[in-house]
Amino acid sequence: MREPISDFSEAARLDALQQLKLLDTSPSESFDRITRMASQIFGLPIAAVSLTDSDRQWFKSRVGVAHQSIPRDKAPCAHVAESAAPLIIEDFQADAYYAESVLGRAGTRFYAGAPLITREGYGLGALCVLGTEPRKASSSELAALVDLAAMVMNQIELEHAFGRVDPVSGVPTRNQFRDDLADLARDQAGEQYLAVFVDLARDEQISRIARVMGSAQVDEVVREATRSLQKVLGPDRTVYHISSAQFAFLSPPKAEPFAYMQELRAALTSIRQTSSVRFVTNVAIGVRPFILGEVAADDVLRGAASAAQDARESDGVALYSLSSDLAHKRQYGLLNAFGSALDDDSQLRLVFQPRIELSTGRCIGAEALLRWRHPEIGDVSPGEFIPVIEQTSMARAATQWVLDAAMDQLAAWRLPPEEFALSVNLSAANLAEDDLIARIQLGLLKRGLRPEQIEFELTESAIMGEPDRALAMLREMAATGVCLAIDDFGTGHSSLAYLQRVPARVVKIDQTFVRNLTEPGGADFVLLETMIGLAHKLGFRVVAEGVEMQETAIILAQLGCDEAQGFWFGRPMEPEQFSAWRACSSGVSPMQASA
Ligand code: C2E
Ligand code: CA
Ligand code: CA
């Protein structure tokens, strides 16, 4: 009475079942609720959601049964799954085939099962009720069972889709990318593919759009981007939504990297020409070749993302490079570790480097410089970690940490405000913080400090990032009475006309112009002389950084430079060391020292 099913359709059915990753998962109330309803409708003690695995019926949900599974052989649910049609057995004893089944021998007399069918038509198993007395099933009971089975399928598909399709873009997620890649690796192991990572904008840019235009606008940008990418890829290829403004897809098999990158460039240009939104001018694309089955899905994505990061610095499309991937990996590691450092008082500290008034040799201030000692990797140079965190939203917390520590120290030193000022470095991102000034003022107030006691250093490039906004912010800051300094002067490309509008009182000439200056005359000397003269004409006080030799200090004093900072005067020091140094520092100008 049983028709054999073909090996092929059974393999496809099993594959569909396995894809859903339901087997051997824990019980869940959303299924148990439906099973209880089935048992109540029939007034029978036993009901189950029973899935047909290769050799067993496994119960995702059950009432009145102790077992988690029974053998598939002669199980009525297996027949329901194979035929994808309901089945009623009114009396097991009257059915020669089922009388000999495991259920039949255990005393089951009645069975009704409705198939669990996927959208593609695969029977996964049955929703079934069992009784120990023979009985019939009315058509309304059977109709209810079929409805409940459909509810079970909805639940299964809902749970499966959760986290697999992005609710905003409507395309598959990173989880799905992982699974699809695993499937491909099974079917086409050893084939070369290219993973393409499309980065529409940095997270910071996205959150800025969200702040300014609202998150509905961001969603719209994402949807438009999705549509553009789908148009480029065509209906047969999948675009995956990896995170807020990041997408990924795979090249057609055997694509040659350089030719494919040309194609991507052309596609990008055409998207730009047809798009209504501005984001497309910021797109960065990373391409990562890999062999199916040899690289884990997450590594494939990370590699492509790292290439996209490189693309930001080149012309929009970049190929994966191992060395820059390692660098990005380290940066990423540092970023995470720095987050913990902010919460761990033992890792971060400030050191202080004296600033010397050249005409008198007195120390009239210091620059607070951040130091980070990681418990495992040891000291990390600010030259390495500051540029990394400055790119992220962590810039705010980092600056706040420095601000608090610097003000605490200043308050502890109790130096007369007219004799000593402490400078703190700000990042470009800080200029976008609406409450920065309020936080500074609050910090000063809490500690009874005066605004003149603190100075903020900003590089030219930090100001030039968003000149109008920066200028407005800096004007407000200057109005509170704190001093502003333009750091690393000479390394940026800002015009003097612009710098003149910046309400800074100080320019700090970058070390590169200072370090090698040992004698008057020569090109370096002329350059420095011009910079100092120009800065003075514009009304700035001039500080030379990176003074390593006495000769340099003397020349600077002769050129009329106001202040100097550098190893020759004093290296950055721990607070106690700095106090001790200051107490016995000579207070003589470099020229007197040489006499
Ligand atoms: P910067 O603001 O230009 O700081 C001066 C840097 O030059 C410091 O390096 C200092 O140790 C070094 N230096 C001072 N005198 C000499 C000298 O005579 N010769 C030489 N070769 N170097 C000298 P450091 O402490 O490694 O800091 C590097 C950069 O990291 C800083 O450059 C600044 O841009 C950034 N940074 C440090 N601390 C902070 C901070 O708290 N916040 C922010 N946003 N940036 C910071
Ligand atoms: Ca500085
Ligand atoms: Ca500097």
TrEMBL record:
Record InterPro entries: Cyclic-di-GMP_PDE-like, EAL_dom, EAL_sf, GAF, GAF-like_dom_sf, GGDEF_dom, Nucleotide_cyclase, Rev_trsase/Diguanyl_cyclase
* Protein's organism: Novosphingobium rhizovicinum
This chain belongs to which protein, by name?
Bifunctional diguanylate cyclase/phosphodiesterase
SMART domains according to UniProt: EAL, GAF, GGDEF
State a single Pfam family of this protein. Answer: GGDEF
Q: Where is the GGDEF domain?
A: 191-325
Stretches assigned to the EAL domain: 331-586
Tell me which domain of life the UniProt entry assigns to the organism this sequence originates from: Bacteria
